[in-house]
Specification:
There is one protein chain. 41% of the residues are buried. Strand 1, helix 4 and strand 2 form a beta-alpha-beta unit. By secondary structure, this protein is an alpha/beta fold. Helices cover 42% and strands 20% of the residues. The longest helix is centred in the first third of the chain and has 14 residues. The protein is built from 8 helices and 7 strands. The protein has a 7-stranded mixed beta sheet with strand order 3-2-1-4-5-7-6, sandwiched between helices. Bound molecules: calcium ion (CA). The site of calcium ion has 4 residues, from loops.
Length: 221
Amino acid sequence: MSSRTLTLNESIYDYLLSNIRPESDAMRELREVTHATLRMHVMQVSPEQAAFMSLLCRIMNARNTLEVGTFTGYSALAVAEALPANGRIVACDLSKEWTDIGRKYWEQAGVAHKIDLRLAPAGETLSQLIDEGQQGSFDFAFIDADKSNYDDYYEKCLILLREGGLIAVDNVLWGGRTADPSVIDVDTVALRELNKKISDDNRVFSTMLPVGDGLTLAQKL
Ligand code: CA
């Protein structure tokens, strides 16, 4: 027994995976294809994190969502499956190569029409949505892109979110590097500064969870 979060060894993690709701076939195939074909597959969220985010969207009755950093589209697929038929994800990424991998599985799952992929720098896409007057209209945002721009993404997502909307920020523990003050590379410092900022930010109610590589949830007040 422990009153703090358990460290997951392989057997506990396998047990956890075998006792959560199974992924759809499209999600499992996309996860496996990404793992098998891309060296960068560690950028893909874990099955339990995808299930958690999809549950969050269900609890919130989310319809209009944002994703900053789509990679091969596994988390977008998880969220899209959780959204109602008229739901949408504005999915931001720079890579046609990576997102093309996901498209086939978005179609297989019958949710491709919900995923509005924008191949451009995410900061520009978010600014464009603000310029179009879409502030205050999004229910949920997932930030999981280049870490040095996280602060910009956070600020813009906060504008775009409705009151009560939720931002999920990925990789906030960064393999433990954010907790180690001797690590001072650009990405780690950006994450560490944003973590501090969010914890003190009275515009949101937030917490940090040891899910995946660390996931902060911040609800817009
Ligand atoms: Ca990530």
